[in-house]
Amino acid sequence: MAENVSVDYDSTAQFVSKLRAQADQIESETPHLTRAVLDSFTREASQGTRDGKPSPIYDEAVAAMSNVMHALDSHFKKIAAKLRSDAHLLESATAEIKQHDEDGAAAVRAVDLGLDMSNSVEKGGAGYSSIPRLTAADLAGDVDKPAPVGDPHARFRTASNPR
User: Fold this and answer.
1) How wide is the angle at C-alpha 140 spanned by C-alphas 106 and 147, nearest 5°?
2) Are 22 and 76 in contact (CB under 8 A)?
3) CA separation (Å) from 140 to 9, 98, 145, 152?
4) What are the Cα distances from residue 86, in Å, to 5, 40, 68?
5) Contact by Cβ (8 Å): 38, 65
6) SS3 of 115, please?
7) Residue ranges of the chain whose pLDDT lies below 50
8) What is the domain partition of the chain in residue ranges?
9) Rounded to two decimals, what is the model's pTM?
């Protein structure tokens, strides 16, 4: 059994924009933050040395911290790429659903329901004989004329039942 899918196109577009903004923020800020951590760590390891370089006892720790910060940069770049990929996927899926909705709506508007209420109402001053045939577009509200009022037992004519 197929389930109905409802999409709020504006909210989805806003969410896609937020995903992309988050990816941009990660890519722009992460290198600065990891660099600041590494610089701070190196500064702490360099205290008390004459040449301003890290003390030899901290060389391995500084190298390990550098490797960790580079790995973090790499992982955050992958996260940003994944966010962009997800945004693109969501945008594409939404576009496909919207196109499907538009195609379905166009198909419905093109259907002539063959609703002719002029023969179903007793004539005698009511003036219903001038009511035109209705199409799906009429019923969907795509026209600017008011809905006709008439007999609730109006006949529907179809190709299989032309009466």
Assistant:
1) 145
2) no
3) 21, 18, 12, 18
4) 19, 35, 27
5) yes
6) strand
7) 121-125, 127-129, 142-147, 151-163
8) 9-110, 112-163
9) 0.60
